[in-house]
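TA notes, week 10

Several of you asked for a full example with nothing omitted. So below is the full record: structure tokens for the whole chain, then the designed sequence directly under it. When grading your own attempts, check the secondary structure regions first.
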């Protein structure tokens, strides 16, 4: 009898369970259609409308050359274009804040025979990178550490980062500005650095410095593009562009800019506002590319 009661209750609930499952499937389908529509609009904007805009039609604007392989946005193409213009030297990169290593600003360079240094605060992510079978010894040096203004120079020195190299990428959210500030003794040829695009281009603002604090997901983090422009100028760099989503700014050392980029090299000229609604990955699941 107890078994019969249990079975009877189950049978009475089957229609409800069926309806719940059907509702779940309908919600999933709706979300998939929303994602497809969002991607279609982004592709329409990027591929068919952007180049006709008077601001972005100038071929010296970096975003004209954007494309995405391993980067979050179009940084892969923009970095490639910068070095097409100014050339490379040692083909060495340093990236601070790599995520799991598959989606960042330098993973694509590994497939083009660059070498480099990766630093991230999460040891679990670095373990995934160490499992790669296609990276010969010495190709990529890894370090798990939380970076601050006070320790970044020491970390670079311990890892053997040269004083001058081709590319530095900084993305540690809260204290990115201060990490760059701590690197006065290093002179990479190109710097890619995250900025706070929610702030107006003429405002020099940076978050109050607390070395141990991490980003809480609000806009009270990082630094404005104007603050980074001014810091870069102190170090001898020119602001030459930003990605269209409003995440990364690109700086080239002043002795290398020539007439390759759009002047003036100011936040007012190169600022891109927050456009995270256009964020999408068009090439499927991100993965490491084999190193030749």
């Amino acid at each position: 009898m107890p078994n019969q009661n249990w079975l009877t209750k189950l049978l009475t609930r089957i229609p409800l369970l069926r309806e719940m499952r059907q509702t779940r499937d309908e919600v999933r389908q709706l979300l998939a259609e929303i994602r497809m529509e969002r991607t279609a609009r982004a592709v329409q904007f990027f591929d068919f409308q952007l180049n006709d805009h008077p601001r972005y039609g100038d071929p010296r604007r970096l975003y004209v050359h954007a494309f995405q392989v391993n980067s979050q946005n179009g940084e892969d193409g923009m970095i490639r274009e910068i070095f097409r213009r100014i050339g490379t030297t040692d083909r060495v990169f340093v990236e601070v804040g790599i995520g799991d290593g598959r989606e960042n600003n330098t993973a694509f360079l590994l497939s083009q025979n660059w070498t480099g240094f990766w630093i991230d605060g999460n040891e679990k992510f670095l373990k995934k990178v160490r499992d790669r079978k296609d990276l010969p010894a010495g190709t990529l040096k890894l370090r798990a550490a939380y970076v601050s203004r006070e320790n970044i120079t020491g970390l670079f020195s311990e890892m053997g980062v040269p004083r001058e190299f081709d590319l530095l990428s900084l993305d540690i959210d809260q204290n990115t500005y201060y990490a760059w500030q701590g690197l006065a003794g290093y002179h990479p040829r190109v710097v890619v650095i995250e900025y706070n695009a929610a702030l107006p281009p003429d405002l020099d603002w940076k978050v109050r410095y607390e070395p141990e604090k991490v980003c809480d997901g609000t806009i009270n983090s990082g630094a404005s593009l104007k603050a980074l422009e001014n810091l870069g100028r102190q170090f001898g760099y020119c602001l030459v562009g930003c990605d269209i989503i409003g995440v990364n700014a690109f700086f080239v050392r002043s002795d290398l800019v020539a007439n390759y980029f759009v002047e003036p090299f100011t936040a007012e000229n190169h600022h891109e506002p927050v456009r995270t609604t256009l964020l999408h990955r068009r090439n499927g699941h991100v993965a490491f590319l084999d190193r030749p």
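DSSP finds eight helices and seven strands in the chain. Use that as a sanity check on your answer.
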